[in-house]
Amino acid sequence: MRTIAVVSAGLSVPSSTRLLADRLATATLDALRQRGVEARAETVDLREHARDLADNLVTGFANERLSEAVTTVTTADAVIAVTPIFSASYSGLFKTFFDVLEKDSLVGKPVLLGATGGTARHSLALEHAVRPLFAYLRAVAVPTSVFAASEDWAGGDATTRSLHDRVVRAGDELAELVAARPPVEPVDPFADPVTSFAAKVGGRG
Fold first, then answer.
1. 191: Cβ–Cβ under 8 A, 6 or more apart, which residues?
2. Of residues 136, 131, 158, the one with CA closest to residue 22
3. Over the stretch 71-108, which tens digit does the pLDDT of each residue have?
4. Handedness of CA 150, 144, 101, 65 (dihedral sign)
5. Residue 178 main-chain phi, psi, to 5 deg
6. DSSP type of residue 187
7. CB 80 within 8 Å of CB 7
8. Torsion on CA atoms 70, 15, 79, 167, rounded to nearest 10
C-alpha cells in the first residue's frame, strides 16, 4: 500500500485549492490502480495548522498536531502540493509549512505541483516560484504542473475539459514515478530514542 500525501494551502471553505488537490489525488490513485498499485491519499489541510506553524517558527518545536502532519508528508511515497497564488507567488502558509520540515526530508520524493488563482495570468507562478522551491528541496517534481483559474471550474466544482486533461496527465506522471520506486519503509519511532536538545534546535535562527 502506497501513501500519497496531499498538502492543500487553501484558506476558505469551500476552497478551490482543496478542490484541485482532491482532483489531483483522485487522478493519481486511479493511475496507480491501473498499474496494479494500491494506494491511499492522506490530506494535510494547512489552514488547520496556521497557529501551529506560527508557534513552530518562534519556538523551533512542532506540537503534536503539526508533528503528525509533518510525518504524514515526510513518510509518504509521494506528495501533491497545491497552493493559492498571492502576489505572483505561493502563499505564506504554504511556504511556512515547507520551511519547518527537516532538512533533506523531501530529497528524491516525487511531487506533483498545483496552484489556483483568479485568472490564468497567475499560472506562470508555478514555474517561477513553486517549482524552484521544490528544486531547492531536491524533490522530484513531475513535468506537468496544474494551474486552475476561476473559469476552469465551469460554474461549480466540475472541471473544464482542459483542466481535466491536465489533471489526468499530471496524475499519470506522478503514478509512473511512484510505481517505479520501492515503497517507503515505515519509520520506527524508537530507532533513535535519544536526541539531544542541541540537535533539535541546531540551525534555527
1. none
2. 158
3. 999 999 999 999 999 988 999 999 999 999 998 999 99
4. positive
5. -65, -45
6. P
7. yes
8. 180
Q: Grid coordinates in use for 50? A: 496556521
Please choose, from the candidates 151, 152, 78, 148, the residue with its C-alpha nearest in 3D space to the C-alpha of residue 110: 78
C-beta of residue 79 within 8 angstroms of C-beta of residue 139: yes
Q: What CATH number did the domain enclosing 137 receive? A: 3.40.50.360
Task: Domain of residue 145: give its range.
Answer: 2-201
Counted domains in the chain: 1
How, if at all, do strands 89-90 and 78-86 pair?
antiparallel
Q: Mind listing the pLDDT tens digit for each residue in 112-168? A: 999 999 887 788 899 999 999 999 999 999 999 999 998 888 666 667 888 999 999
Backbone angles phi, psi at 128, to 5 degrees: -95, -10
